[in-house]
Design a protein that fits this description.
140 residues; Four Helix Bundle (Hemerythrin (Met), subunit A); 80% helix
């Protein structure tokens, strides 16, 4: 897991949880952070607070960029490639949603990311080791 990715979603609680987490769990925590940030952007959009939308959407985009950075496209095969494409799509949609303060588009982003988050959460603990070895770049 890269330093950039971990910095994208860091709080005292997350720091404590990271020490004992595998990479899949860290990815799920990053998804949670991005989903929360998009929810905040959506709330700001509903109130017409454009600066708040921009700040929260920017945080979500930073987390998504961190998720992209962790992918090992060589070892991860088609799954890593599809996730990379998804993260790029999501970033473009978040940028457009942020600029227009579109509640509907932000809700779409939140829903899409939530679905992928649930797929990660459904990976069995037995398969998690293989996911860790094949999907993520290890930075020392």
């Amino acid at each position: 897991m890269s330093a950039f990715a971990l910095k994208a979603y860091r709080t005292a609680e997350v720091d404590a949880r990271c020490e004992d987490s595998d990479k899949r769990q860290l990815v799920i925590m990053m998804y949670d952070g991005a989903i929360d940030a998009i929810g905040l952007a959506k709330a700001h959009a509903e109130r017409g607070e454009h600066k708040g939308v921009s700040a929260a959407a920017s945080r979500a985009m930073t987390i998504v960029a961190g998720l992209r950075e962790t992918l090992d496209l060589e070892k991860g095969g088609s799954v890593a490639t599809h996730l990379n494409d998804f993260y790029q799509f999501l970033t473009r949609k978040l940028m457009r949603s942020s600029a227009s303060a579109s509640v509907a588009d932000l809700a779409d982003c939140q829903d899409l990311l939530s679905q992928v988050r649930e797929a990660w959460a459904a990976i069995s603990p037995a398969a998690a080791g293989q996911v860790n070895r094949n999907m993520f770049v290890i930075h020392s």
